[in-house]
Specification:
Polyamine Oxidase, Chain A, domain 2; eight-stranded mixed sheet; 15 helices; binds flavin-adenine dinucleotide; Amine oxidase
Length: about 500
């Protein structure tokens, strides 16, 4: 395929391809499919790994296929309402799934099994109240703040280990970060657009992929249905992207170059944040501010294979450790409808705790997590696991985390800037989805939307420039000065009064 890249100058250079699609995850494959639907076949997907799928990543573990990355179709469809496009793909490719029952839980603390399911239910209610209150804030044009503030204002203030574990299960386990680190308003719309049928979302249902071909099969199967061999370049890692208003040239680690009239970059937010790919000219300041203001969170699944099942018969075990976020969620795959008889138990950790275990040797993490199981089952002799694995998403240079999360200091203007094109490089992936950031369907819609736009560019050469704002602005400083002035004045008055008081006394 290709190569002798055309130089990128001031005039439109003869390009090897009309469109370069950088990355072969959901966004990249759906972008390719969309271009094809618009009659554009002169494109190539450039993917670093030896297969398509990206963060849909399965792993052969103890004789079964488990998912290191995405596992659930989150939100399906309510009646004839909007349908999650990932569900449509799953149906087309006959993916085996199983509905998850989040109420099927057993609860534990440092003394063993203790029933605090009522507290878990209250935390679920608090989460619903949190999202409702966020809606009221939007209606009243109030500023965003942290989800922690939101929880406090709806009077959900976890104090005990049980309350923290319950809150974790309904919040951190979804966003991969704490309420303190997460926007209140964006987290709520992200939830509502996915799960809230009355807010235009899909449904509350979550389908767990449990297919021996792997969840990735739906994207690989889809690619196989339309992609030609010459439209795909695997084992091709991009190190450099040179761009102008006339074209794009990318350079790979092995020195090969590809040129295109346009490029769609679907690399994760983490990859963009970590300078794993160099842009030339460097990305403009507004773009960099946006990229570095969103968070690439981390969600880690820790897989154990035991010689036999000794644990709960529910789908989940919730463990309340005195330290919040320390191995709080355990999911059994050794269940009817999942992988019965498999002996597989999965613990999940997120956020800072994920980063911590990524920095530790696997043997240490294995013992630490086994220690938690011994705490949960003080009267049971826990057998030695015969297999153990977790993926270090944060250290992985192709992802640098698991999925994006919206922090409270990230504004809608920032998000527009994240999505905005620079020259002829367009950006699309889960993180550029304003409604569905973090999710597979976010990546799907972005791949589709950006490719539709680029298809128009190719056909008409009249290319829409995506909106960006040069400066994401705060409250006008003139108003702040007035306030500061006022504060200073009253402070001075207080000082004078206090000195006078001292003199008098
Ligand atoms: C642990 C975990 C659990 C998750 N759970 C769920 C879930 O249950 N449900 C859900 O909806 N979502 C879930 N997600 C999120 C979901 O997986 C992502 O939103 C989605 O897969 C992102 O797709 P994408 O195409 O935007 O990005 P990616 O999948 O990251 O695709 C980008 C591609 O670019 C490639 N690449 C990166 N750098 C380079 C380079 N320099 N050169 C060439 N190629 C490069 C990568 O290999 C990758 O294939 C989870 C993710 C993780 C990690």
């Amino acid at each position: 395929l290709v190569v002798g890249a055309a130089p990128v100058g001031n005039e439109e250079a003869p390009a090897s391809k009309q469109v370069l699609i950088l990355g072969g995850g959901v966004a990249g494959v759906i972008a390719a499919r969309t271009l094809r639907e618009h009659g554009i076949n002169d494109f190539v997907i450039i993917e670093a790994r030896s297969e398509l799928g990206g963060r849909m990543r399965s792993h052969s573990f103890a004789g079964h296929t488990v998912e290191l990355g995405a596992n659930w179709i989150q939100g399906t469809q309510t009646g004839s309402g909007p349908m999650n496009p990932v569900l449509r793909l799953a149906q087309k490719h006959k993916l085996k799934t199983r509905e998850t029952d989040f109420e099927s839980i057993t609860t534990f603390d440092h003394t063993g099994a203790v029933d605090f399911r009522d507290i878990v239910n209250s935390a679920d209610e608090a989460y619903v109240n949190l999202t409702k209150a966020a809606g009221a804030r939007v209606a009243n044009d109030l500023v965003d703040t942290t989800s922690r503030t939101g929880y406090s204002l709806v009077e959900a203030k976890p104090r005990t280990a049980h309350e923290h574990a319950a809150e974790y299960f309904s919040f951190d386990w979804e966003y991969a970060q704490k309420p303190d680190q997460t926007s209140w308003i964006a987290a709520s719309w992200n939830n509502n657009y996915t799960y809230g049928a009355d807010a235009g979302g899909f449904s509350e249902s979550n389908l767990f992929a449990r297919d021996n071909r792997g969840f990735k099969h739906l994207i690989q199967g889809e690619a196989a249905s339309f992609l030609k061999r010459h439209q795909l370049e695997l084992n091709a890692t991009v190190t450099r992207i040179e761009y102008t208003n006339q074209g794009v040239v990318v350079t790979l680690t092995d020195g090969r170059q590809f040129s295109g009239l346009y490029a769609i970059c679907t690399f994760s937010l983490g990859v963009l944040q970590n300078d794993d790919v160099i842009f030339n000219p460097p990305l403009p300041h507004y773009k960099l501010e946006a990229i570095h203001s969103m968070t690439m969170a981390t969600y880690t699944k820790i897989f154990f294979k035991f010689p036999y099942k000794f644990w709960f018969d529910t789908e989940f075990g919730i463990y309340a450790d005195p330290e919040r976020g320390r191995y709080p969620v355990w999911q059994s795959l050794d269940l009817k409808g999942f992988y019965p008889g498999s002996g597989i138990l999965v613990a999940t950790v997120t956020g800072d705790f994920s980063q911590r275990i990524e920095a530790l040797p696997s043997s240490f993490v294995r013992e630490e997590a086994l220690g938690v199981l011994r705490t949960m089952y003080p009267n049971t002799s826990i057998p030695e696991p015969t297999d153990f694995y977790y993926h270090r998403w944060n250290a992985d240079p192709l992802y640098r985390g698991s999925y994006s999360n919206w922090p409270p200091s990230f504004f809608v203007g920032h998000h527009e800037n994240m999505r905005a094109n620079v020259g002829r490089v367009y950006f699309g992936g889960e993180a550029t989805s304003q409604k569905y950031f973090g999710y597979l369907h976010g990546a799907f819609f972005e791949g589709q939307d950006i490719a539709t736009m680029v298809a128009k560019c190719v056909k008409t050469r009249a290319c829409p420039q995506l909106k960006h704002v040069d400066h994401v602005k705060n409250t006008p400083y003139s108003q702040l000065e007035t306030t500061a002035e006022r504060t200073r004045t009253s402070y001075t008055h207080e000082l004078v009064f206090s000195l006078l008081r001292q003199l008098i006394l």
